[in-house]
Amino acid sequence: MELSAGVVNHISSAKKEPECMLKRRMDAYRLFSEMPMPKFGPSLAPMKLDEIEWYSEGTGKKRDWGEVDPAIREKFEKLGVPEAERKFLAGLEAQLESEAVYGNLKKEWESKGVIFTNMDEALQKHPELVKRYLGKAIPPSDNKFAALTDAVWSGGSFLYVPRGVKLDAPLHAYFMISKEGIGQFERTVIIAEEGSSVHYVEGCSAPLFPRSNLHTGVVEIFAEKNAHVRYTTLQNWSHNVYNLVTQRGIAKENATIEWIDGNMGSLTTMKYPTVILAGEGAKGSVLSVSVASGKQNQDSGGKVVHLAPNTSSTIISKSVSSKGGVATFRASVDIKPEAKNSNSFVKCQGLMLDGISKNNSIPKFLVGNGDSFVSHEASAGRISEKKLFYLMSRGLSRKEAEELLVVGFLESFLKELPFEYAVEFNRLLQMEIGTQAI
Questions:
Q1: What 3-state DSSP class applies to 91?
Q2: Is-contact 352 321, C-beta < 8 A?
Q3: Within 13 Å, how many C-alpha atoms sit on residue 381's CB side?
Q4: Collapsing DSSP states into helix, strand and coil, what is residue 59?
Q5: What is the mean pLDDT of residues 57-65?
Q6: How many CB atoms lie within 10 A of CB 406?
Q7: SS3 content of the chain, % helix, strand, coil (to 5)
């Protein structure tokens, strides 16, 4: 269906939103209509926006798994989502297509003032808080797909951690697409007040359909003085999904924002988690992993903007390409003149499992003063035949040896994941590269 003002109005009306939100959506829709497609990265020409289903009404959010529709419950149970909540999560939000289907925050954290819900519910129950932060890190004018998300967004997570509260267990949101041709346009806002800390984990999946799906989520993080936010993403979209995401965090004085970003499965990905170091002593890091197989084009990396003195950043990227897949790393470090005595380290490594796959590295550095330091390392190559021979001489098959070397290559990423997620990532990785023959 072609996107129109009528579609935007329908979405806002179905959600019973205030007039100001409808106006915001309409303004974003006009921006989307006027803005050009990105002039860099993978070709988006095959994507047919006029065939996307922009919104699918849900059955309402439940707070007990037993109350969720059995057909929906079965989809998430196959992924182990409710089991993970029972074992080690502080809270969970689950979304299917356009709407949340389940949400729960453990009483221990709710009693301390933590708010963890979906964005639609947050707009109804905490309108002033939402309006204060929504779009402040990523305005709709940022890029064409940020404008699109602002116009048709539905669902996503809203997380507020009060001053001094430190969650000792992750919060988890899971987004699933199970319908052919539908778009998912969630918005997520995370606010960590002074001295607080939180680890938010996002999981995504979709089955394979003949017709493409579209995902254009927008994530904004606000870390106040001395706050610490870690955002972990494990995206396992199917090979028919266009994954075009905008993610940005603002770190105030001595605050830390970490992006742990895993991408595999989607046909095309354009995703560059960003940290704006706005306060003295702030720290930012991006650890990105991409797996590109077959016709997949994974274009990812990270960006950091140093606005204040004595700030530091790290961008590390690892990519694996096989069967003709293309993996591209983009890094951007911008140290402003006023960001005296700042430091940044950028490292990208690519591993190609055959002679037809590709790996690209495109870093960009802007240093506006003579007191700061930027270092960069880059490497790309094939799996070592000597290492393969050594492992195979110890009794491993070629396939087992290849998988072991790839897992070793990605060790720095895997060790940053909670154990349960590291196990899941390993399993998904084996599915992606398991049939590879060099």
A1: strand
A2: yes
A3: 7
A4: coil
A5: 70
A6: 22
A7: 25, 40, 35
Residue-wise pLDDT for 338-365, tens only, equals 999 999 999 999 999 888 999 999 999 9
Please tell me the distance from the alpha carbon of residue 352 to that of residue 337, in angstroms, as a whole number: 39
**Which whole-number Å values give the CA distances from 339 to 251, 258, 312, 335, 363, in the listed order?**
14, 20, 10, 6, 20
Contact 159, 189 (CB under 8 A): yes
Of 167, 233, 237, the C-alpha closest to 197 is 167
In degrees rounded to 5, what are phi and psi of residue 98? Answer: -100, -10
Q: What is d(CA 311, CA 255) in angstroms, rounded to the nearest whole number? A: 10
Per-residue pLDDT tens for 355-391? 899 999 999 999 999 999 999 999 888 888 888 888 8
Strand partners, 110: none
- The DSSP call for residue 317 is E
d(CA 223, CA 227): 5
Q: Both tokens of residue 155?
A: 């669902």
pTM above 0.85, yes or no: yes
Specify which residues 235 forms β-bridges with.
Answer: 204, 263
Nearest one of 253, 201, 261, 187 to 223, comparing CA atoms: 253
Sketch the domain layout of the chain as residue ranges. Answer: 5-271
Count of C-beta atoms within a 10 Å radius of residue 127:
14
Q: How far, in Å, CA of 426 to CA of 438, rounded?
A: 20
Tell me which H or E stretch contains 393. helix 385-393
Q: Report yes or no: 152 and 17 within 8 Å, Cβ to Cβ.
A: no
**320, 410 in Cβ contact below 8 A?**
yes
Place of tokens 């996107």: 3
Q: Could you tell me the two tokens for 324?
A: 């003709």
312: left (phi over 0), alpha (psi -120 to 50) or beta: beta
- 154 closest CA partner among 9, 325, 12: 12
